[in-house]
Amino acid sequence: MAEKKTDQELIAESVSGQTEAFDALMLRYQDRLFSALVQILRDREEARDVVQEAFVMAWTKLASFRGESGFYSWLFRVAYNIAMSHKRKKSLPTTSIDNQPASGSITPEDRHPDNQPSHQMETSERQHMVRAALEELPEDYRTVLILKEMESFKYEQIAEIVGVPIGTVRSRIHRARSLLRENLLKRLPEGEEICQA
């Protein structure tokens, strides 16, 4: 079985004109990029457009990629800049992410207690609650929290992506977590507490 090529190998091949190498990079990252952008933009169609535009721009600018950061964080920065440019040009309509289909489903034959319908319903309710609380956050806070908690970017990468100093990223993440907690507390039934991971 052939070994999976690294991003650097695929980038080098892409720069030398091998389009199938860039196709492999696209396949590697398009779903992850799309999922993150849906969370940030709250609009699936806009996220899809931004992903397509980001890959087109990445292809044309690939020779300028210096490898100082990972390819995905560079690609995300490209996509984020495109998304912000779209926002500046027009007022983006928003679609609630609550209307998006849930990914994955559990088969009814699964007898594990965590996978029983009642547990699944509780989990779904909690996910809905978290998404709604996240959606209430101001965009600057929501974006950095998604990049940190869902995309697992380091503070330095987030600072590069959103174009602010690392101290600003840290304070926004701290504030975003506080606001998210407040939003969640408002939604919890009386007497129930937020679980600490």
Characterize the structure shown.
This protein is mainly alpha-helical and 197 residues long. The chain folds into two domains: 1-94, Orthogonal Bundle (Rna Polymerase Sigma Factor, Chain: A), CATH 1.10.1740; 114-187, Arc Repressor Mutant, subunit A, CATH 1.10.10.10. It is 66% helix and 0% strand.
Structural class call reads mainly alpha
Order of helices and strands: HHHHHHHH
CATH class label of the largest domain: Mainly Alpha
What is the fold named in CATH at topology level of the largest domain? Answer: Rna Polymerase Sigma Factor, Chain: A
| Uncertain spans | 99-108
Rounded radius of gyration (Å): 19 Å
Helix and strand layout, with pairings?
Blueprint: H1 7-15, H2 19-41, H3 44-61, H4 71-89, H5 117-135, H6 139-150, H7 155-162, H8 166-187
Helix pairs in contact: 1-2, 2-3, 2-4, 3-4, 4-7, 5-8, 6-8, 7-8
Outline of the structure:
The protein has 8 helices and no strands.
Any key phrases for this structure?
197 residues, mainly alpha, Rna Polymerase Sigma Factor, Chain: A, Arc Repressor Mutant, subunit A, 2 domains, 8 helices, 66% helix
